[in-house]
Automatic annotation (TrEMBL):
Identification of the protein by name: NADH dehydrogenase [ubiquinone] 1 beta subcomplex subunit 8, mitochondrial
Keyword tags: Membrane, Transmembrane, Transmembrane helix
Pfam family for this entry, one: NDUF_B8
Keyword Membrane: yes
One GO CC term on file: mitochondrion
Chain segments annotated as transmembrane: 142-159
Amino acid sequence: MSASLKVLAKGPCFSSGLFKHKILRLVSPTVVARSASYWDHDWQPGPYPRTKEERDRAAKRYGLLPEDYEPFPDDGNAPGDYPNLPAYSAHHRDLFANYEHRQLTRHYGEPMHINAELYRLGFVDPNNADYWHWRMPYWKQLLLLITAVASVFGLLSIGNRYRYFPPVMAKQFPYDKKGQKHYLFEPADE
C-alpha cells in the first residue's frame, strides 16, 4: 500500500465504505446507457413514406408486418409515417391478461392508436353502438340542460336579492361619542 493510501485508510471514511468507492472509481470507467432515457425526437414519427422501401422501413420501426402497415392518407395533415391503426378501446381487450402497463392495457413496444388517450378504460369506446347513454333523444337532453341552468340562475338571483348576513353591531369605543356615559362594574356607593 502506498503512503497516500495508508493516510486515507486511517481516516474515518475507510470504515464507511467511501474509501472503497473512491478506489473503484479510479479503476473502473463509468458507463452510461443511451437507452436509459428517451428524447422527444425518439418518439416523433418520420417523414411520410413515398416508396416501398420507406414503407417497409416504417413498418419495421413500428413493429408491424409490411402488409399490415397502412399510413394515414397524405392530405397535408398526415402525422408522418405513423400507422393508421384501427380504433379499439381498452374495454375490448382481455382485462385479466398480464400487461406491462396495466392501466393502459397494453404491452411494451406495442403500437398505439394516434388518439390512444381517448380509448383508455373509463373513456370513449368507439366500438360501442349504444350512443344514447340516457335513453332519451337529444332535444330532451338539451331541454334538461337549459332547465338546470335556468334553475341555478334563478336560485342565485333570488339569493342575491335576499342576502343573509349575521346581525353584528359596530364595535363601541369610549372615544366614539362625546358625552356618552359608560358604566363600570364596580360596587355602588352607599
